[in-house]
């Protein structure tokens, strides 16, 4: 069983809809959580970085952490075609800070 | 400010050939890492370094070698290329382990 699970999609939504993405993890010791966005033929870029349970908002993006359920979510409000990308969750897994990534969810926002 | 620079962007090799993928960062980051990305597999860690002169293995190290002689550079060497090493390779850096990493734009490698 992978330490971090993420539905690969694809997830297709109309422009303006809310995109809901999630990851589950198996190790309750994980404390930091990241979301990356990756456009086609590009490297991943950091979107959100959270530590504690609860919500963190940045513009149209909201990251949510539920440590009791070992579940993290990313919401994109008022989605745009430019949000079409693959979204990856990641978390440090040991004292050396090695990151474990989910498989990534492909999102397609149609005009 | 270039960030993380990877060269080459594309490469085709024959089975058994060796080559070095270059990675350089200009952010004075101590922590650098190499990943491979395959369809449906996400990013898998090959090797990482916590500072000049210090490297360690990640999840999929076999067939790859690294060294870190300077803070800026972290090359990845394929010793004897195999078709299973066909992938997209990403280099990343951060100021410390566990912190958000900055990624290069990848090297797309095909091995025939």
Task: Give the topology.
The complex is a heterodimer of chains A (about 110) and B (about 110).
Chain A: E1 4-6, E2 11-14, E3 19-25, E4 33-38, E5 45-50, E6 54-58, E7 61-66, E8 71-76, E9 85-92, E10 99-101, E11 105-110
Parallel strand pairs in A: 2-11
Antiparallel strand pairs in A: 1-3, 3-8, 4-5, 4-9, 6-7, 7-8, 9-10, 9-11
Chain B: E1 4-7, E2 10-13, E3 19-25, E4 31-38, E5 42-51, E6 54-57, E7 64-66, E8 76-78, E9 87-94, E10 102-103, E11 107-111
Parallel strand pairs in B: 2-11
Antiparallel strand pairs in B: 1-3, 3-8, 4-5, 4-9, 5-6, 7-8, 9-10, 9-11
Question: How is this structure best described in words?
Answer:
The complex is a heterodimer of chains A (111) and B (112). Helix content of chain A is 0%, strand content 54%. Chain A is mainly β and 111 residues long. In chain A, strands 2, 4, 5, 9, 10 and 11 form a six-stranded mixed sheet that branches. A five-stranded antiparallel sheet of chain A has the order 1-3-8-7-6, with no helix packed on it. The termini of chain A are far apart. Chain B has 112 residues and is mostly beta strands. Chain B is 0% helix and 52% strand. In chain B, the strands form two sheets. In chain B, strands 2, 4, 5, 6, 9, 10 and 11 form a seven-stranded mixed sheet that branches. In chain B, strands 1-3-8-7 form a four-stranded antiparallel sheet, with no helix packed on it. In chain B, a hairpin with a 3-residue loop joins β4 (31-38) and β5. The radius of gyration of chain B is 13 Å and the shape is globular. The interface between A and B is medium-sized, with 22 and 28 residues.
């Amino acid at each position: 069983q992978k330490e971090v699970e993420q539905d690969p999609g694809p997830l297709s939504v109309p422009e303006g809809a809310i995109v809901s993405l999630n990851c589950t993890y198996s190790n309750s010791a994980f404390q930091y959580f990241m979301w990356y966005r990756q456009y086609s033929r590009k490297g991943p870029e950091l979107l959100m970085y959270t530590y504690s349970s609860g919500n963190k908002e940045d513009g149209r993006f909201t990251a949510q952490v539920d440590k009791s359920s070992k579940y993290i979510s990313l919401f994109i409000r008022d989605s745009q075609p430019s949000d079409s990308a693959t979204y990856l969750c990641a978390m440090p897994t040991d004292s050396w800070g090695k990151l474990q990534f989910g498989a990534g969810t492909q999102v397609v926002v149609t005009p | 400010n270039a960030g993380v620079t990877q060269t080459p962007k594309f490469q085709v090799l024959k089975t058994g050939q060796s080559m070095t993928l270059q990675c350089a960062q200009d952010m004075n980051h101590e922590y650098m890492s190499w990943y491979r990305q395959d369809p449906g597999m996400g990013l898998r860690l090959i090797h990482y370094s916590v500072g000049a002169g210090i490297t360690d293995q990640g999840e999929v190290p076999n067939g790859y070698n690294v060294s870190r002689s300077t803070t800026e550079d972290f090359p990845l060497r394929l010793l004897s290329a195999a078709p299973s090493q066909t992938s997209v390779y990403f280099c990343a850096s951060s100021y410390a382990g566990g912190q958000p990493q900055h990624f290069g734009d990848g090297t797309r490698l095909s091995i025939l």
